[in-house]
Oxidoreductase (Paenibacillus ihbetae), 245 residues
Amino acid sequence: MSKIQGKVVVITGASSGIGEATAKLLASQGAHVVMGARRVERLAALASTIETEGGSVLFQQLDVTNIEQMQSIIRLAQTRFGQVDVIVNNAGVMPLSPLAALKIEEWNRMIDVNIRGVLHGIAAGLPIMREQQSGHIINLASIGAYAVSPTAAVYCATKYAVRAITEGLRQEVGADIRVTLVSPGVTQSELAEGISDDEARELMKTYRRDALPAFAIARAIAYAIEQPADVDVNELVVRPTAQLA
């Protein structure tokens, strides 16, 4: 039997990319998956696929910048399945641009989704996990949490923040709750489609030439979850073999 069997897992940003792949993989291993994203029609289609394959899944529309919506999806998981074992704070945006382009609305959107969204996931789930005296919070960062590159200053700043928040949480929660940071290298996803800056978009085409499939990151997330309760995988950096930086 899979060590993931029966675990209740909430995944944000589950309508595509890493979130979608993680939902499929964990459901196939027997988890009760609760998916959230803004594009509810995509969630419905994904849920139908998972159910057809015998998986257990619920979904709800979710904007992670809205704390009430985040609390609502956590309550849904707890009400339907009696507990919340894992929260995967995956939702993120990446509209890269040089700072001189002054795309302030895009900066604010990255701060709201990439940082505030993670904090909302923690705020909604941590009280339940403390009461249960068990749980696992997995935050998605990026290799951008370790080094800054041109056009990515604000994006990297948000991922450095996620890295710092995750480490602070790990130190604070004690022995009952596990905390993991997963930092993907170049991965196939829709993130680059949100880039409005011409220079950044062209740079990203070259940068993303060698990209991991989203399932590679899903497998890393599953690896962290399936460890025994007294084993906390704190940080995973997963790059394509060809990616040097």
